[in-house]
Amino acid sequence: MATNVEITRNSGESSLSTLRRFSRKVQSAGVIPRMRSIRFSGRVQSHYKVKQKALKRIGRQAAMAELVKLGKAPVKPERGAKK
Hints:
By secondary structure, the chain is mainly α. The protein has 2 domains: 13-42; 45-78. Helix content is 59%, strand content 0%. The chain has 3 helices and no strands. It has helices at 15-29, 31-40, 47-70. The protein is elongated, with a radius of gyration of 27 Å. The mean pLDDT is 89.
């Protein structure tokens, strides 16, 4: 979906004021934030990749839980837990 911003130069208007009017129109249309969000958004990962990442994370958590149970790793406090 393209948003075209069109400005025509009025009679007796300087080029600087025309440029300023165009910049304000672009800013009010929200073109720049939308373009930046498109530019920096990541690609959606495939179902297989998501599954592999989840399995890897579960394996790491299980290994760490085993180490904590054996007393070889310190107990990590819960995030946001009050002391």
